[in-house]
Design a protein that fits this description.
There is one protein chain. This protein is an alpha/beta fold. It contains 19 helices and 24 strands. The strands form four sheets. Strands 3-2-4-1-10-9-11-14 form an eight-stranded antiparallel beta sheet, covered by helices on one side. Strands 5-6-7-8-12-13 form a six-stranded antiparallel beta sheet. A five-stranded parallel beta sheet has the order 16-15-17-18-19, sandwiched between helices. Strand 9 and strand 10 form a beta hairpin. Helix 9 runs parallel beside helix 13. The longest helix is centred in the last third of the chain and has 20 residues. The protein starts with a strand and ends in a 17-residue tail after the last helix. The structure holds fructose -6-phosphate. The site of fructose -6-phosphate (F6R) has 15 residues, from helix 9 and helix 17. It is an enzyme of class 2 (transferase). One of its GO terms (biological process) is protein N-linked glycosylation. It comes from Candidatus Onthousia faecipullorum. It holds the Pfam family GATase_6.
Length: 600
């Protein structure tokens, strides 16, 4: 995902601020970087493909500037080259941009007829040229921005400097986040508060179709029509954006280990005063059906919620991959609530699906981890998981926080539609309050996970199987392993093996499973016996007693169905982690993956 930082100061060199800001956004993934700043009274642009360290090495160590803009780019239009990297400059205007200009080809044609030519293959250079076109026509920044916002179809957070107006930085926003950090004599704009947190904890948020003129004394925020807006000054909550790795070797391990706190933090306000607190959650009884939309791990959390809504509260729930949902006939109506789950709140397919539902005027709810994210702005109502910053690409604590939040939503719904009793709910609440004691022994069982990792890390194919809820959890277990260890791992419904997949089982093929449902366990165990008979090595997470079997067993305590997914997933996460550790992969930033997938 792209990252933006811009800074202007009365008395400081902003280059270190820009580079530090970019580094704090690095975890989101990028493939090139660049910076524009004032040197010898002219705008100097330095860009490079690859890591920020390449950019630092290319910068002259003696350069100093009081104004600058910088960017990390994740290639969308055009390859990850230094030519395509931002900033882009066209005559008077230099910009960095997050988002996608959907009508850039039409605008490019129009500008080419006006004798503009382009060096890069990016939509951003076209946006920059359009700004320059209007600026030359009107010689008025407000009018330029107004015409630009009218013309552009797509999303943007843009930071702009103008060669004959170098006392100001301009920022423009539509559907891509932008904040303006305020500190003494120095103001910093960025796409994420993590980029400004070292320098200030006070910031403004821009809404869509707003723009701002930022200089060393002042921030003037305006609507697209040029009206000056009075905005709330926000304060950063430091705990929730903790970017440090602590004493851990990887962010992923730190984030797995934090789950003893993040789960309870997420649900606490809904359970602290027992049953009454659950009434703070939205009333879902007015809807006939629940839809859930998400991608990857968020989609897997949705599957767990589907199981709980249907089995516990007798409420129909469909779960969709956002990349499919946006292009299919979804039979939506005003009686359907669509829930969008996303850690980042910036996933392109999830945003497009949300826009589709909104365009029809139907109700939406967000389950989001990152506040001020695009989805959190767009949904009718947003519930936040309080997992804190998730920096490792592989999602762990966000997933369990999503499950916990969805669980309390299901519980409140069950009370309202009278499918569950108060006593039942109180018992689940007690287990959530006791979550630290329930999961800490599982988090601490490093030797067991390491011993399993040693057995599987050289394998080429690993199968995850389960039934019911355990099947949905096996999907997440397989995803965790494949994305960070690069071992091919697939999840199958245990009952489906015989319909094809069992032909792939050979001597020593690892089959990892969970069996935590008294009604279905016997069936899963017989499927495990079938693969055992074909030579597979079996690893089983269970709350039952199968000590006499030739399986490697990971025992979890017997808990409510709402807590089970959390207990099952911890061994899955740690097996994946230690396997990747033995393989020596880049665990926090696996190849080809970005933390936020902001393109289709
Ligand atoms: C896997 C993973 C991804 C994300 C997916 C959705 O570990 O992290 O599958 O879950 O890209 O991202 P968000 O939740 O940000 O919408």
């Amino acid at each position: 995902m792209c990252g933006i930082v811009g800074a202007i100061s009365k008395d400081r060199n902003v280059l270190p601020i820009l580079i530090t800001g970019l580094k704090n956004l690095e975890y989101r993934g990028y493939d090139s970087a660049g910076v524009a700043y004032l040197k010898n009274k002219k705008i100097n642009i330095v860009k490079t493909s690859g890591k920020i360290i390449n950019l630092e090495n290319k910068l002259n160590k003696n350069d100093k500037s009081n104004i600058g803009i910088a960017h990390t780019r994740w290639a969308t239009h055009g390859k990850a080259t230094s030519i395509n990297a931002h900033p882009h400059s066209v005559k008077h205007i230099t910009i960095v941009h997050n988002g996608i200009i959907e009508n850039y080809e039409e605008i490019k044609d129009m500008l080419e007829k006006e004798n503009y030519s382009f060096k890069s293959s990016t939509d951003t250079e076209v946006a920059c040229a359009l700004l320059n076109y209007y600026y030359e026509e009107f010689r008025d920044v407000d009018r330029t921005i107004k015409e630009f916002m009218k013309k552009i179809i797509g999303s943007y957070a843009i930071v702009m400097i103008i060669d004959n107006d170098l006392d100001n930085i301009y920022v423009l926003k539509k559907e891509s986040p932008l904040v303006i950090g305020i500190s003494d004599n120095t103001n910093i704009v960025a796409s994420d508060i993590r980029a400004i947190v070292k320098y200030t904890n006070k910031y403004y948020i821009l809404n869509d179709f707003e723009y701002a003129k930022v200089n060393t004394n002042d921030v003037i925020i305006k609507s697209v029509n040029g009206d000056i807006l009075s905005k709330e000054l926000h304060t950063i909550n430091l705990e929730e954006i903790d970017n440090s790795k602590g004493h851990y070797k990887h962010y992923m391990l730190k984030e797995i280990m934090e789950q003893n706190k993040t789960i309870l933090r997420t649900v606490l306000s809904f359970i602290e005063d027992g049953i009454d607190s659950l009434s703070k959650l939205p009333d879902l009884t007015k809807y006939k059906e629940i839809y859930i939309v998400g991608c990857g791990t968020a989609y897997h959390a949705g599957l767990v919620a589907k199981y709980l809504f249907e089995e516990i509260t007798n409420t129909k729930c469909n779960v969709y991959l956002a990349s499919e949902f946006r292009y299919q006939n979804n039979f939506l109506s005003k009686d359907t609530l669509t829930i969008f789950i996303s850690q980042s709140g910036e996933t392109a397919d999830t945003i497009s699906s949300l826009k589709l539902v909104k365009s029809k005027g139907y109700p939406t709810l967000g389950i989001i981890n990152v506040d001020n994210s695009t989805i959190s702005y767009l949904v009718d109502k947003c519930l936040y998981t309080k997992a804190g910053s998730e920096i490792a690409v592989a999602s762990t604590k966000a997933y369990t926080a999503q499950i916990a939040l969805l669980s309390v939503l299901v519980l409140s719904h069950g009370l309202r539609n009278k499918t569950i009793s108060e006593d039942y709910v109180l018992k689940v609440i007690d287990q959530f309050k006791n979550i630290d004691n329930l999961i800490s022994p599982l988090l601490d069982d490093k030797d067991l996970y390491l011993s399993i990792a040693k057995k599987i890390y050289k394998e080429k194919d690993i199968f995850y199987i389960g039934r019911g809820l355990d099947y949905y959890l096996s999907m997440e277990g397989a995803l965790k392993l494949k994305e960070i260890s690069y071992i091919h791992s697939e999840a199958y419904s245990a009952g489906e093996l015989k319909h094809g997949t069992i032909s792939l089982i050979e001597k020593s093929t690892p089959v990892i499973s969970s069996a935590t449902n008294t009604k279905l366990n016997a069936k899963t165990i017989s499927n495990l016996e079938e693969v055992l008979a074909r030579g597979a090595d079996i690893y089983l997470i269970t709350d039952d007693n199968y000590k006499d079997k030739s399986f490697t067993i990971i025992n979890i305590p017997k808990v409510s169905i709402f807590i089970k997914p959390i207990l099952v997933i911890i061994p899955y996460q740690l097996i994946a982690y230690y396997t990747a550790l033995l393989k020596g992969t880049d665990i926090d930033k696996p190849k080809n993956l970005a933390k936020s997938v902001t393109v289709e």
